[in-house]
Write a structure and sequence with these properties.
Chain lengths: ~300, ~280
């Protein structure tokens, strides 16, 4: 056996498996996106079998682009992903800097902070939407009731009561509603992924050049300018990586959306694909191809960045 | 000078306090879930029993009656364990060859493997449903195991590759000189030397399999349904069952959170594909 055969043989199972996994389903999606294909049709039963006879060209793409749900889903995907990215990066940097220096109980703080990341998405969504955000029975409802009761009590005070009489009665927000369900998803995913950002920024901060920092302190640099001119540039690369990895994960958010609102006013692309796939496979596949394109735009940048450090 | 020391001391104390507050806030929802799991369903929605209540274990004791918890848990364990084992079985030889006999294409192959991870699952939802249904594997452990293994294989290979690269090449080359077979090299030298790395890769892969919530929900109905599917199916209890739902949720995530504590460091390497060290 030649020197190169063995390594190839060892790699082949993994390569073949991943090749099949990628090419066959994606190839089918591509094919279905160009034909008329529905699961149930009394009027056109010939459309219920996938066949080249039912060629539709870019018709499914036209249909999807003209569908108002598609535009909403893209907007909503972007709103959710961008908000989560913004919040997790800001919170992540702040918390990582906060716990970078040693203090009593730092180990426990780390353990507490990282925990949300390991909660399964389905539990995360059920926990937040019911036990915390529910407007009546959740903590939100209980807190709002409590504050309202407190204000009512304060209104009975002599003199000061008149002042508290000006305060409005608070009303809880229903996070299952059309306009607000996206915010519930943003809150719960931010809670889950901020620990991830913290962990990565913290790892990166540990390799920060301490001598440079000491030199800056001797030169009279304040805490803010140390942060602004040393720490933040040092975190540039990890921030880029956190942004891209999260973008890829969050573009395919599904369980949270399903649990919070069953897509009520709050569809993202994966959810819309799932809905189309209940009957119109052609449209589901065309939407799928759009999702692939969107993910690829992010993936190309990420892969380039990872590729640079790969063979070091 | 004394003033500087003084202010930096209060600074330190306030930083530590703030760090603790932030950590407790982040942990609070988990704490709340566990606390609620010890309340009866009736008590769980009454504000007067918010913090002080008579704790009960009923929610945990009745998990089988209420939700058939153990069947779902068994499915989660079976699918996650086998998916992890297969991913390692395929991944170890592959990462070994890549780390010790790299060719011009190794880098491209690794990048391509990663790119399969970035394919949005939803895009291939229908073809996967179609394939699994037409070969009669819909809602079977086997299918869930295969899918879980495939979606985690790139991360497994990637992590193993970064661990294997740290082993000095001379050790492997010396063994090759001595005429040890490839299988012998992997079993006698590679696995013992990289044991720590292999274990953390396995743990992380197991966690990802356990928490997966797209394919396990879409490709199963009852037979192979995992805990994700169980929780997803009880999404809106309307406050009636907060106690029992908390118990089943806490049971589903508890072991994984504890496992996660042990592989924080590896998580960074595994999730950033070695780009942050």
């Amino acid at each position: 056996m030649s020197k190169r055969t063995m390594p190839r043989l060892l790699q082949s199972p993994a390569v073949v498996l991943l090749l099949v996994w990628m090419l066959i389903p994606l190839g089918m999606t591509l094919f279905f996106s160009f034909i008329r294909y529905v699961l149930n049709s009394l009027r056109r039963p010939e459309w219920t079998t996938p066949s080249i006879e039912n060629w539709r060209g870019f018709g499914n793409y036209d249909f999807v682009l003209g569908n108002k749900d598609f535009l909403l889903a893209v907007q909503n995907s972007l709103l959710i992903v961008c908000s989560i990215l913004f919040l997790t990066v800001i919170l992540g940097v702040l918390i990582a800097v906060l716990i970078n220096k040693a203090f009593p109980g730092r180990g426990i703080v780390r353990v507490l902070l990282i925990s949300p990341f390991f909660v399964m998405p389905a539990v995360n969504a059920v926990l937040w939407i019911n036990m915390i955000l529910d407007p009546v029975l959740g903590l939100q409802g209980i807190a709002v009731d409590g504050i309202n009761a407190l204000i009512r009590d304060l209104q009975n005070l002599p003199v000061l009561g008149a002042f508290f009489g000006l305060w409005p009665e608070l009303s809880p927000i229903s996070f299952r509603a059309t306009q607000t369900s996206a915010y519930a998803v943003i809150i719960m995913v931010t809670w889950q992924w901020t620990p991830f950002a913290v962990l990565i920024f913290m790892t990166s901060l540990q390799s920060e050049d301490q001598q440079q920092k000491e030199a800056a302190i001797l030169d009279g640099a304040g805490a803010w300018s140390q942060f602004r001119f040393l720490t933040l540039p040092h975190l540039g690369r990890p921030i880029a990586i956190v942004v891209m990895i999260q973008a890829i994960f969050h573009l395919s958010l599904y369980a949270e959306i399903e649990i919070v609102s069953r897509g009520n006013g709050n569809k993202n692309l994966p959810y819309l694909i799932g809905e189309f796939a209940n009957n119109n496979i052609g449209a589901a596949s065309a939407t799928g191809i759009f999702a692939v394109i969107l993910a690829n735009i992010v993936a190309i940048f990420l892969l380039r960045m990872i590729g640079k450090t790969l063979m070091e | 000078m004394a003033i500087v020391a003084q202010s930096s001391r209060t600074g330190r104390i306030s930083r530590a306090t703030l760090a603790w507050i932030v950590a407790l806030l982040f942990f609070f929802p988990i704490f709340w879930m566990v606390l609620t799991s010890f309340k009866t369903d009736a008590d769980a929605v009454k504000p007067q029993y918010l913090l002080f209540f008579t704790p009960t274990l009923d929610n945990y004791l009745n998990m089988t009656d209420n939700y058939d918890y153990w069947r779902f848990a068994r499915n989660s364990v079976i699918t996650s364990v086998f998916a992890t084992a297969f991913a390692l079985a395929v991944g170890i030889p592959c990462a070994y060859a890549m780390a010790f006999n790299p060719s011009r294409h190794t880098k491209d192959v690794l990048m391509w493997m990663l790119s399969t991870k970035m394919l949005p699952a939803a895009a291939v939802l229908y073809p996967m449903t179609y394939i699994t249904k037409s070969v009669g594997l819909f809602d079977t452990h086997f299918m869930v195991i295969v899918v879980l293994m495939l979606i985690n294989l790139p991360i497994v290979i990637w992590m193993l590759f970064t661990y294997f690269k740290e082993i000095p090449r001379e050790i492997i080359e010396a063994a090759q000189m001595d005429g040890v077979s490839t299988w012998g090299e992997i079993r006698e030298i590679l696995i013992p030397l990289a044991w720590g790395g292999i274990v953390s890769t396995a743990l992380l892969c197991f966690i990802f399999c356990w928490n997966e919530a797209y394919w396990t929900v879409r490709l199963t109905t009852t037979e192979a349904a995992t805990l994700s599917k169980l929780i997803e199916g009880n999404r809106a209890p309307e406050g009636l069952f907060f106690g029992r739902l908390s118990a089943v949720s806490a049971a589903a995530v508890g072991p994984i959170i504890v496992l996660g504590w042990f592989c924080q460091k590896q998580l960074v390497q595994g999730l950033t594909f070695g780009a942050v060290k």
